[in-house]
Structures are given as C-alpha cells and as structure tokens.
Design brief:
Blueprint (H helix, E strand, L loop, with lengths): L2 H21 L8 H16 L18 H20 L12
Helix pairs in contact: 1-2, 1-3
Bound molecules: zinc ion.
C-alpha cells in the first residue's frame, strides 16, 4: 500500500467510525452525508499538489471548504478519541488533529 492508499484507507475508517457512532449506520455503510464528506476528502487528497503531503494543519493551502473543514474536524475528533480508547493508535491519523 503506498502512502496515498494508506491515507485513503484511514480516512474511510475514521468516517465510518463516526457515522456508525453518530448516525447509527450499520457497519460498512455510510449515510449520505458522511458519504459526501468521504468523497470530498478523497478528492482533496488526490489533488493535493504537495509531495510529500504535509500534515494539513501545517499546510498553507487549506484546500477544504470551511463547511467540510468543520465536519472533517468533528469526524477526526470523535474517531480519534474512539481509537485511543480502543488502543488502535496505529490508525491514528495526525493530519487533522
Ligand atoms: Zn453519517
């Protein structure tokens, strides 16, 4: 798995944990809102012009639209906490924390 594939995988994990916890969506599914956030984030990731990609908080471009930025922050906060509680630090994504 290359870096970008790995980032995509982690992004999906984060959003699905959030969706399951907050929107009571069955495992391996996303509600339409969360699906939108995922698609948006994947697109931003693919189009990131910086190589190697810096942590988003250290990036000067801030390519996310404010509404999505706020949502993805909530997702990261919620799922980050969830993963820490379960000892899954290997999955912790530092980009948005
Ligand atoms: Zn959802």
């Amino acid at each position: 798995m290359d870096k970008q594939e790995n980032d995509k995988y982690i992004l999906e994990q984060f959003i699905s944990i959030y969706c399951r916890g907050n929107h009571k969506t069955p495992k391996a599914k996303l509600c339409s809102d969360c699906q939108k956030i995922l698609e948006y984030s994947l697109k931003r990731l693919e189009r990131c012009p910086q190589d190697p990609k810096p942590s988003c908080k250290n990036c000067e471009i801030h390519c996310y639209k404010p509404e999505y930025r706020e949502k993805i922050r909530q997702v990261m906060r919620y799922s980050g906490k969830h993963l820490i509680l379960r000892g899954r630090l290997d999955l912790l994504w530092h980009y948005f924390t």
